[in-house]
Amino acid sequence: MSGAVEQAGAPPRQYRAAAGRWLASAPGLRLIAAALFAAAGLAAFISYETLVLGWPVAREEPAFFDAYHLARAAFAAAASCLLIVALTAARGAGCGLERSRLAGPSALAAALVMACALAGAVLLAASPSAFGAMAREDSGLEWTSALLLLGASGLFALRFARGFARRRAVPALALAGLLAVIFFVLGMEEISWMQRILGFGTPERLAELNWQSEFNFHNVQTDLSELVFYAGAGFFLGVLPLLRDALSPALAEHPLAAFVPSRGVAAVSAPVAIFTYGQWNLLPVQIAGLLALLALLAFARAARRRGDGGENILFLSLAAAVAAGQALVLAYGPAMTDLPDASEYKELFIAFGFAWYAATAGRAAARA
Length: 368
Description:
This protein is an all-alpha fold. It has one domain. It contains 17 helices and no strands. It has helices spanning 12-24, 26-52, 67-89, 96-99, 104-126, 128-133, 140-165, 170-190, 195-198, 204-209, 222-238, 240-246, 249-252, 263-268, 283-306, 309-332, 341-367. Helix 2 (26-52) runs antiparallel to helix 3 (67-89), helix 3 packs parallel to helix 15 (283-306) and helix 7 (140-165) runs parallel beside helix 17 (341-367). The longest helix has 27 residues, at 26-52. It is globular. The two termini are 22 Å apart.
């Protein structure tokens, strides 16, 4: 990435020019080519499965490891490797990968959250019934997920209120307000808008459409909702932090860059790449998980190049834990008492990631 923006308040055209120069450079073109390869392969597999095999685009089913599904997994691994290698090769001089260090609180939080995730994977191997009991409706797992998401909403709502009082820039205010609304809706959807607590019924029309006859909207099409949510959250929490750290200072100074998840968010969100079982056969979810795993290795390599041994070990350990945890889930997934059990654990760690994102991005946006 070449070119420089003199100050954070530079005109938008200078940011666009810096982005254009980067995308037109040889590393930028290779990154575009890798993204096109991944998109074309993904479209080809999905088209073949829906048009020829008659499979639904979104579905929840046991993980398969026949020749065809292994070929899909090989494509997912190859496409993910190409994307991460191309992204790190396109990093700008003086970017975050080359100079910044992971904050201590993020490192500690990442270690604690990963320890909880590994405990969950071990619980599945030791006692599938206990693993399933913790994933029931209105369990502590579900309520913790909801409270974390509602907390994230509250943090962005607070940033919005403070920014409005101080007459901050409209785009940043709008984004903070939008994120507050999104996380509020996600949190309330997790607990069906407190239907079972308040005891109100589901409107007849919604009950007919909803797969569980609950007062929520994601279960109107549960499989599709999970596909979008899991793939989107994996990419947002695991891959965008690497993109942010690869940006040159000319682009990283953009005021809205503060809303892009940081490296600390990627570390805390590492367990999001675990607990994929019922959606393992969905290629977008599989690719998102592999990208997040490879991003951890990219962060480890960047730390080693900077001579930061502690951060290198942390990210290597997180990557190893993700690989081991996901292997346990795939090995013992058939023993689960109910196929969606692993999904509740996955949603818990997505909520942890979003909460940490709200805490760190809110402060960064306030400084910007």
